[in-house]
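call fold(seq) -> tokens
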Amino acid sequence: MLTMRALWKGAISFGLVNIPVGLYSAIRHTKTVDLDLLRESDHSRIRYKKVAESDGEEVPKEHIVKGYEYQKGKYVVLTDEDFARVQIKSNQIVDIKEFVKLAEIDPRFFDQPYYLAPEKGGAKAYALLRTVLEKTGLVGIAKVVIRPPREHLAAVKALDGVLTLETMHFADELRDLTELSEMPKTTVAPKELAMAESLLETMTDKWGPTKYHDEYRKNLMKVIEQKVKTGEKKLPAVKSAQPTKGKVIDLVSLLQQSLGETTKAQKRKRSKQHVAHRKAA
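ret:
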């Protein structure tokens, strides 16, 4: 039984097929540290006021309107009725328009993942779609409204035995690579390339996401806990990191050094594993 709460329950639709599903968030939004802005003298919270740019006067909520700047300093005001004209209602339908090869999609298009789980009467069709997507490497490209009024482009994918829906960016949302400043034209020497390949080979492992953690959040919480425990006494000074001065880099030497350190670390790891294995035996 699913313990997560569905954002909504609807259906996947393509052709004449209709598969009842529930949509569930695949991300936990609990990893941030909430901080408030305070006045230093008495820790009174800082509140924000909405003020007019022209005279600095505070504007009551009932007198605030939304506008689009169509020329410098000139706005057209949009009313609730105007927004209602373009409102896209959520019909809880994942409307698949076509199927494409997953390998053909630029990863930059993908945004936020969700889970799709079968609802009553949809298990058979759900399993069939999941299996055929797994077998063919295809994904369904769909339009979906998750939270009105915004409509999303999305991909329906098979992943580890379930169907997922991943919202996508529209093409005009991605910045063009040509917007980058001119990239320097450089050449790579065969020796440098060989060393880099060797380094990458020694550092290659299987993907294990649980090996990685938000170190900043963990360390910030430690500082907070220390300050609470000590009554906000000043903590020991932190040594500031010295910025690296710009200089010519000997890439081959750095690669050789990195390769040597990585090899030593791997030998130590294998030695510890061997000792642990012998003790277990």
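The helical segments are 80-85, 123-136, 190-203, 215-229, 251-280.
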